[in-house]
Each structure stands twice: as C-alpha cells, then as structure tokens.
Write a structure and sequence with these properties.
This protein is an alpha+beta fold. It has one domain. About 60% of the residues lie in helices and about 15% in strands. It is built from 4 helices and 2 strands. It has a two-stranded parallel ribbon with strand order 1-2. The protein is globular. The protein starts with a strand and ends with a helix.
Amino acid sequence: MSKTVALPWYHREDWPALHAEFADRDAISPCYDTWKSSAIARETKWRQEGYKVHRIELRPDAFRLWCRGKNRNADYASRRAYADEKLAQLRLDHLVNAA
C-alpha cells in the first residue's frame, strides 16, 4: 500500500478570508501566489519521496464550522487535521461505493 498524505488546498478567491482567520497568519504569506508556489514545491517533494498526495479543498465556511465544532483554532495543526479527516472520509466513501 502506498503512503498517502492530505495537502490542504486553497482557492485564490478564498485566500484573503482564510488568511485573515488563520491564527498563525503571521507565519504564512498573505500573497496567494507565494503560498501556492510553496505548496506545489511541498507536493512535488512528497511525490518524489513516494507519497500519493491528495489536494483537499479547504473552503472558508466549511473550515470555520469545522473549527468551531471541534473547538480548535484555525492554525496549521487544524488545517492538517481537517485535510486528514476529509481524506479519510473520501477514502471511506470510495470503499462504500465500491462494495
């Protein structure tokens, strides 16, 4: 079985709203293109290391609700946890639909 990783993925139109909500926004460029370039480099590195990378869309309203429901800050750990949870759900849905 191949190693799999979830990569939180953002849309340009969502970036300003998301960035404003990130608790760790000072550690992340406010420029979408800078974030995207870094994310693509990370994705490429993971693929070269043998990972199967799944881009998981992180939309402002859904992420905000998820954070509130889990009583979490909108930080790096939460973005990763959200993406991991969504990937697990996609994999489960695929198994159920394949059965």
